[in-house]
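Z., the sequence and structure:
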Amino acid sequence: MPAWTSTGHTRLVRQGGRKAVSRLSRLTDSRRWAWTGAYAGRFVVVAATYYLTARLSLRVALVGSVVTPIWPPTGIAVVALLWFGVEVWPAIAVAALLVNAPINSSLAGAALIAVGNTAAPLLAVGLLHASGFRAQLDRLRDALALVFLGALTSMAVSAALGTTALLMDGTISRGDVGSTWALWWAGDATGVLVFAPLLLSLGQVGQLGQLGWRRWLEGTGVIASLALVAWLGFHSQFQDTYLVFPLLIWAAVRFGQLGASLATVTVVGFTVWAAIDEVGPFAHTTLLHRMLMLQTYDAVIALTSFVLAAIMTERVRALAREHRNAETLQRSLLPDRLPIIPGVEFASRYRPGGAGLEVGGDWYDVFTLPRERLGLTIGDVVGRGLAAAAAMGQLRTALRAYAIETDSPAAVLQRLSRLVVEFEAAQMATLIYAVLDPDTRTLSFASAGHPPPLLIGPNGSARYLMEARSPPLGVTKAAQAEATVTIDPGSTLVLYTDGLIEGRRGSITESMEALRTAVEGHHGDLDSLCDDRVLQPPRPESSGDDVALLMVRLLPAPIGDLRVLLPAEPHVVATLRRTVRQWATRSGASDEEAGDLVLAVGEAATNVIEHAYTSTGGQVEVEASIRQGLARIVVRDRGQWRPPRPDGGGRGLLLMQGLVENVDVVSGPRGTEIWLSRRVGRPPARTESASIPVPRPLAESRLHVEVTQLIDDIDLGNSARLYREMLDGMSDDAVGLVVDLSEVRHIDSAGIRMLHKLAGWLAQRRLELRVVVPDASSVRRVLELSCFDAHVPVTSTVESAVSEISHTRGELSASDLVPE
């Protein structure tokens, strides 16, 4: 057993560890002394405050120099226990004993009163904690808890012990017990009701510095007016004491608990003054009647003011919470960032309206569509608050879904209008939906009751697009109008909500003309166009309606060297292909050479997206140049490549090597670079145009071959979705699947991997797969370069694919099968 010894500090210390324990002891002692010093400071503050306010209150004592009409120390004691904890109760007890000892005939009576003055606040705090009380008094339940638990219930203890002490000392007779108890209880309870809210609201004093001079002037005027009205009400012959209540309500509603507490103390001070002087309503009455009337009036004043302040604070917080929820919902439904698309520039603004706490239903959205097009939309839902924000979210989600199903903006708006009418998705909404094709430089759009778009030409001229106008959504199910215009490179499209023009001076027509004039002739960037031209006065910032603003600028095709920096995300691959194709074509490459460069760069970017980054936030950088007929392109990342995929990856490098003359992959600690080079500018080879047989109708049979036609480019961004859709579309009685890629213009390694995965899934179930690609298609060339046709049969027509499946199954001839 180890040896133990006792130190002079009565601690048992292991002999081998005295030094460590000594250091710990010194640390503990320092913390104890620090805690002791802080406690001593709180003890002195609480005791001194209690003693001084008690001595002042006793100057107006009316029963045996002990019972006062209002006893502020009870409110101070309750707040001290709430702020500093119940461990400061000795300070209250000592101060209460020092106050009562000189004015009582016996020390026992003074001690009993001190016990009551300590026990009542302790009981009040215990009951408040049990009820979940919050010292901010920002809920109605907190105000009611302070009234009924902290004041009325708990102060009965101090009144009972104090009355008993006076009875023991002979200060009062048995016949005076009831009235003395009532006066004592009412005085202590009123002290809690008046002074506890005042002290608890001191935490709001820091907010006074945020008030403007008008609010300071208003608050000062309310308190000064209240003092004047209270003095006149209690000292004049009219005795109109009820006139203080409008000003009390004003202070509580406009300035919360702090204003209500200051107003209450002001009125209570004048009532006590009037009661002492026996003037106004307190004249010519008995002492008991005077005190009960004073205490009842003060209690009503305190209860009215700070309960109303609690109700208003709770209501304001609820409105603010609803506003934050609606704004959060609205912000979450707005794009957190606009897409980065080479050749297209975006800018957007959202300005909440200045009226009220609720947000509106203004919104905008930008999203990519198949075939490298862009969907642009801006709208306004009638109403405000959560309902409008929720309706906005429904329309935004539905619009994106409908935009995938159809290319026509008018058809999208017609479906949205039917949604609003049949399912009451919103009361009414205005909306513009446009489809921008950067390749053809066309804009197709439809408007449902929305202000017309504003188009600014490259020369700075501005005009409204007044075509394709239809009633707002939810008004009719009729077909919507649609228009298509050509946009020159350098043009800017301005989409906005009605809050932008309704906030200007004059009629709507005058406001629209003022907006057109403001933007005309602008040749700067979009940010300056938004902030310096569109959102500047005469539109006031205090406009009651929200404003959503979306600007889209079509940039001229790149000339010379190309540098593109895009987020490493699957959806940017299509954008990158379009940009490289425009650059290569304008730099003198033939269609075939530009196609090879596009495919190679797309594969390099796909590799970066799949392998370089383990989380979002990475970027892919592309630099390209053509010097003396040699195209050099580098695709760069700043990440660390992951190991190769185990599911048949690695086709991307094989494709790049077949598309360009040289491929070099250089990896280092700062990232990876893929260097591509190819000669361009050669005369294109003459080739005979391949005839594409038209599939003839096939007769119905008991066998079923599923035919799926894909029309969008297939890349990393959509390959997983297309795989799921094809599997979901397979019927149970199908004996095979034909995937028709006749309309597909591009497929990368991710798409090829998807087709291999599809073939494996079908083979496990003894089903056949055929892929249809015309012989002259660039997709056919990619499949041949990747050796895909060595594993999965590739045919030129749907008819021949169905025929092959027929022969393989050994059931019927090709003329007996029906593709679906």
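The chain has a mean pLDDT of 82. The first helix runs from residue 18 to 58.

Let me know what you think.
H.
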